[in-house]
Amino acid sequence: MNEKEKMLAGMIYDPSDLELANLRTQAHNLCTEYNSLREEDPCRKEILSLLFPNAERLYLQGPIQFDYGVFTKFGRGVYANFNFVVLDCAPVEVGDDVFFGCNVSLMTPVHPLLPEERKTYQKEDGTWTDKEYAKPITIGSNCWIASNVVISGGVHIGEGCVIGAGSVVTRDIPAHCFAAGNPCRVIRKLSEKDSIYLKQGLFPEE
User: Do the bridges between strand 137-139 and strand 79-80 make them parallel or antiparallel, or are there none, so unpaired?
Assistant: First the structure.
């Protein structure tokens, strides 16, 4: 297996690998260019099409930062507000009509817990590197991830969830739940009683 295949499989890999380094540089440069453009500049859409060629109706407010981009898959109608960060060293899959608030981070990388396994080391060619691995993140359709949420690698969030502001999500969240906190936990199931129309009295409760 090459280093990219190891990385995507969740195995220990060498992040200094030339193929991976080139992919990161390309994504980082595209993000930098995207962040420098005015909102009405059509080049923003062109850059998104390079980073995410299969995405439909994707809108990222910016600034954005992706490690690779090519390992993130967005569904239709995804929106992310300011300061969206995705370290996609493992696959990141986002369903349709997902909203991200400001300062949301999706973090797939994992470093060894033991310091002797985590520290940098020098390869025979003189390059300094470290040992890393990564775990995938999956977010179902119709979720709202509120501001300042961090989602850790290995997490699956079911469809129709709301993750409260400031949460740190370290474990799976089942579908159609409101979850919040650090660590994030399920508060309750969402239901028809959560309708904003009912709360504002726009039609009678049945």
Answer: unpaired
28 classed as catalytic: no
Structure tokens at 157: 């969030």
Per-residue pLDDT reduced to its tens digit, 116-140 = 999 999 999 999 999 999 999 999 9
The 3-class SS string of 108-159 reads: CEECCCCHHHHCCEECCCCCEECCEEECCEEECCCCEECCCCEEECCCEECC
Q: How far apart are CA 3 and CA 104, in angstroms?
A: 28
Write down the pTM of the prediction.
Answer: 0.93
- Report how far apart, in Å, the C-alpha atoms of 34 and of each of 19, 20, 131 are: 23, 21, 31
Label residue 74 exposed, middle or buried (CB < 10 Å: 0-12, 13-18, 19+).
buried
Say which amino acid occupies 54.
N
The string of pLDDT tens digits covering residues 31-80 is 999 999 999 999 999 999 999 988 999 999 999 999 999 999 999 999 99
Q: Which listed residue (28, 111, 156, 176) is catalytic? A: 111
Bridge partners (DSSP) of residue 73 are: 93
